[in-house]
């Protein structure tokens, strides 16, 4: 009788499949299916006779169901194996899009005297998308400037004080820039100006969430948003492009840390104790 011990595995290393990390298919996790390239957020997982499946929703609201096969998905460009998430403990707290614990039955607080200003409408819509629930509970109103050049006049008119702090989020706040000089001129005990390094808040959305490999580089002298649309092969309609980008944001996980930290800092500043 022959032994079934065939000795060591002689398969060449380059033909062996590398195990992929397992990732729980939590709701709102954005992944790409490797075979079809379909990119979307996890809606639900189900157990079927053929094995577990996951339903994804793309930025246009289209749903597709995929088997949860090994090495079947890309997460931020890395091959992963999706697995069913562990059952959530009964009574586990719901979280807001910003990741904070939602307060059941909480009502919007009367608006504070303090404010947060951002540069433009897109910035304001993105902040509302992720931090809207938190801001309403804290009574913080977000307004936009339509350009950082107006900031000194806005600060003078607002007349900030210990009970009416002003927080400002600025695009492309890097050393030596026009934005940095304006920020330095208005920053004070009751005014906090912070910023992210991106040319526009569009770049603060993770490319993987939008379904692109990276944000394109736009030559100087071109309108940046139009240049992005052109480079990505999108219609040169920046309003429609923004709705496409905003629709891909479901939670803080879709944003870059450089923006997340700055917004949280502003909320803490405006709502913190006056001393």
Automatic annotation (TrEMBL):
Task: Determine the domain of life of the protein's source.
Answer: Bacteria
User: Region labeled Disordered — which residues?
Assistant: 1-21
Q: Which InterPro entries did the record assign?
A: DUF3097_C (IPR021447), DUF3097_N (IPR053883)
Q: Which organism is it from?
A: Streptomyces stramineus
Q: Which residues form the DUF3097 domain?
A: 22-85, 115-271
What's the protein name?
A: DUF3097 domain-containing protein
């Amino acid at each position: 009788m022959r032994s079934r011990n065939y000795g060591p595995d002689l398969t060449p290393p380059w033909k062996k499949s590398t195990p992929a990390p397992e990732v729980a298919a939590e709701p709102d996790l954005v992944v790409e299916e490797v075979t079809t390239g379909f990119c979307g957020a996890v809606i639900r997982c189900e157990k079927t006779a053929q094995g577990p499946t996951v339903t994804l929703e793309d930025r246009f609201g289209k749903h597709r169901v995929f088997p949860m096969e090994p090495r079947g998905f890309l997460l931020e460009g890395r091959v992963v194996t999706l697995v069913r998430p562990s059952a959530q403990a009964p009574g586990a707290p719901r979280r807001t899009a910003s990741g904070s614990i939602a307060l059941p039955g909480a009502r919007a607080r009367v608006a504070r005297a303090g404010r947060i200003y951002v540069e433009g409408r897109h910035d304001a819509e993105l902040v509302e998308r992720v931090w809207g629930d938190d801001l309403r509970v804290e009574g913080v109103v977000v307004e936009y400037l339509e350009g950082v050049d107006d900031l000194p006049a806005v600060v003078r008119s607002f007349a900030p004080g210990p009970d009416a702090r002003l927080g400002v989020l600025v695009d492309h706040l890097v050393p030596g820039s026009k934005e940095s000089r304006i920020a330095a001129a208005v920053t004070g005990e009751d005014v906090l100006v912070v910023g992210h390094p991106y040319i526009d808040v569009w770049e603060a959305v993770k490319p993987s969430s939008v379904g692109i490999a990276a944000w394109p580089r736009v030559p100087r002298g071109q309108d940046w948003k139009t240049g992005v649309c052109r480079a990505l092969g999108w219609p040169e309609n920046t309003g429609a492009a923004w709705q496409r980008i905003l629709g891909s944001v479901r939670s803080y996980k879709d944003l870059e840390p450089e923006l997340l930290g700055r917004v949280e800092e502003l909320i803490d500043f405006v709502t913190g104790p006056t001393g």
